[in-house]
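Section 3.1: Structural characterization of target chains.
Under the original work plan, the team committed to producing a structural model for every single-chain target entering the pipeline before any wet-lab resources were allocated. The record below documents one such target. The sequence was received from the expression subgroup and is listed exactly as submitted; it comprises 174 residues.
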Amino acid sequence: QGQEKLSCNPKKENGTHVVLCELGNPMKAGARITVDMELSVSGLEDMGDAITFHLQLRSKNSPSPSPSKASVTVTVPVEAEAEMELRGNSLPATVVLPTSWHGVKGSRRLEDHGIRVEHVYELHNKGPGTVSGVTLSLTVPHLLGDHVLLYLLELGTEGGMNCSHHPALNPAQV
């Protein structure tokens, strides 16, 4: 019949976080109540697929020597949501290669292998959740038949990312 706000107190009991809510005292025999609770739990990224709550009803007014302890376990699936965005550009944005240009075999000078083009990719998490263990795979065509299309010179990362190098990276050690 109406709604009341509960007075709840968080505490730690035997290494477990407990929230104790007082439902009413005295409560009439045969009374039926419904309790809606909204809990805010942080750090769910490392909780796995689900989080389990143990709910227990304790009566202090029980006439028996030991108070009743009706309990139920509720398992709630954890679903993290995050939207990833990949941005990229090339510096310079456009390159026109001369039709008569040929690379100098055996040269260790960078300009003898072609025009430098830098590709920059940025992976952004637009949230709302955090992410970990993300894998980004980039495939760059470096050969056209038996001819070098793009000479892959180096690969670098920023922001604590790990990178695995392709075996065709800087084969002439320029």
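The chain has a mean pLDDT of 79.
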